[in-house]
Amino acid sequence: MKQLKIIGVFSALVGLCSVLGAVEIIPVSQAEAVKPSKTIKTEYQYAAKVACSLLAPHQDGTLARGTYRTTVNIHNPTNKKITVAAKVALASQFGSDPGPFGVTPFKEAVIQPDGAVGVNCFDIAGYFCPIDGVCVDFAFLEGFLVVKSPVPLDVVGVYTARHTDGEVESIDVEAVEPRQIRETVKIGAEEPTKPGGKRVDYPPKGSSAYGDKEPRQMCGGIAGFPCPEGKKCVDDPSDNCDPARGGADCIGICVK
Question: The pTM is what?
Answer without folding.
Answer: 0.68
